[in-house]
Each structure stands twice: as structure tokens, then as C-alpha cells.
Amino acid sequence: MYHLYYAQTGNGRRPAVMLEECGLAYKATKLDMAKGEHKAPDYLALNPQGAVPVLVIEDGGKTTALAQSGAILLHLAETTGKFLPKDPAARANVMQWFMTAQTDAAPASSAIFLASAGTLPDKSPANSAFFESRLLSLFKLFDGQLGKSAYLAGSEPTIADFALITVVEGRASLLEKTPGLEGLKRWHAAMKARPATAKALKI
Ligand SMILES: N[C@@H](CCC(=O)N[C@@H](CS)C(=O)NCC(=O)O)C(=O)O
């Protein structure tokens, strides 16, 4: 049994994409971050970092609370045998794009949010433009790859695509207003046409 604690953010919704794509049943609890529910003692007991998401896994009487969206996707890939090839070379290629989405694109998108929400000490609008340009340079990188293959790591979707889709969906207006990036735009539409991904993006 899986219980996902999430918010409607790129990181928060990412495990839902993987759970839906794997066809796994799960309970979902949305946290109201504006009310600080992610810092409440009950939630800190699950994740002392006080960040979403967390996946609570109940397996044969054993309960595990797993934080970090990337770790959750990897765990589900390993336990289901889906969306992550076993062949070392193919696996390394998936991991390369997975890590670019997790450790480069997701933080760049988060930085845009922090700058635009006025969370940074220096509230200069130039900060938002700077972080947008960082994300756009990554969008160009993904676009180049998606001009060559249907999905990030080849002809089939993998955890790399599931890691990226919530970032791109969250920044859809930036993508749409940017000329070009046709490969990324095609991929975005194709991912949203997948019933499981579409369902997860609506939670
Ligand atoms: N690398 C983490 C990032 C998690 C994260 O920063 N989540 C944000 C929402 S998108 C959060 O909960 N921030 C509140 C905080 O860190 O206090 C992941 O992928 O799970």
C-alpha cells in the first residue's frame, strides 16, 4: 500500500506520475503549504526536512517513509521493474537524463518560483529573468535530444521523462511563449496525451 503526501508543485506531483504510469494504487494527501502543513510535527516525523513529497510504503507489516522525489521514482522503478532498463549502458543513459531533470531543471524551476514569490532577500525582477534564462538553456538541451528521439532516453518513456514532465508542465507558459523548442513542445503534448501522466498532473 502506498500513501503519497504531496503539494501541487513539480517535485510534489512527480511521484504521482510514476505511481499512475506503473498502475499502482495509492492514497494521496495534499498538504496546504501556505498553512505550513509540511512543517507540522506529524509530517516532520515522516520527513524531518519538512519538504514534499513523501511516499509512505507499507509492505508486509513494515512501514517506510521515503522522501526525495528522485529516490521515490528510483524505488518504484526497481520494485516494479518498469521504466528503467537493466542493461548498464541503457540504464546509464536514462540516469543521465533523469539526473539532468532532477538536479538541474527542477531546482532551476524552483528558483524561478522563489524569485517571483519574493522569497529571495533581493527582490530585483532581474532575478526572475536570470533564473528563467537558466531554465531556458536546459529546455534547449532537452529540445536538442527530443529532436533526435521520441523520449529523453530513446523510443520508450522512462523515469527521465517522468522526472521532467512536472517541471515542463509547471513552466508551460514559458515554453509556449518561447519561439522554437519544437522537439520539447512535441514531447510535452505527447506526455500529456498519456492517460496515466495526464491523471497524475491533475491531482
Ligand atoms: N529535491 C527534493 C525537493 C523537495 C522540495 O524542495 N519540495 C518543496 C516543494 S516543491 C518544499 O517542500 N519546500 C518546502 C521547504 O523545503 O521548506 C525532491 O525532489 O523531493
Using the coordinates shown, work out and report the CATH topology of the largest domain: Glutathione S-transferase Yfyf (Class Pi), Chain A, domain 2
Global Rg: 17 Å
Tally of DSSP β-strands: 4
Largest sheet: 4 strands, mixed
Main-sheet strand order equals: 2-1-3-4
The N- to C-terminal Cα distance equals 18 Å
Strand content: 5-15%
Instruction: Give the distinct bound molecules.
Output: glutathione
Shape: globular
Which regions have little confidence, pLDDT < 50, spanning 5+ residues? none
Helicity range = 55-70%
Reading off the top of the CATH hierarchy, the class of the largest domain is best stated as: Mainly Alpha
How would you classify the helix and strand content by structural class? alpha+beta
CATH hierarchy: architecture of the largest domain: Up-down Bundle
* Number of H- or I-type helical stretches: 9
Instruction: Estimate nothing, just give the exact number of structural domains.
Output: 2
Salient structural properties:
binds glutathione; 9 helices; globular; alpha+beta; Glutathione S-transferase Yfyf (Class Pi), Chain A, domain 2; 203 residues
Report on the architecture of this protein.
By secondary structure, this protein is α+β, with helices and mostly antiparallel strands. It has two domains: 79 residues, Glutaredoxin (3-Layer(aba) Sandwich), CATH 3.40.30.10; 107 residues, Up-down Bundle (Glutathione S-transferase Yfyf (Class Pi), Chain A, domain 2). The chain has nine helices and four strands. A four-stranded mixed beta sheet has the order 2-1-3-4, with helices on one face. A hairpin with a 2-residue loop joins strand 3 and strand 4. The two termini are 18 Å apart. The mean pLDDT is 96. The structure holds glutathione (GSH).
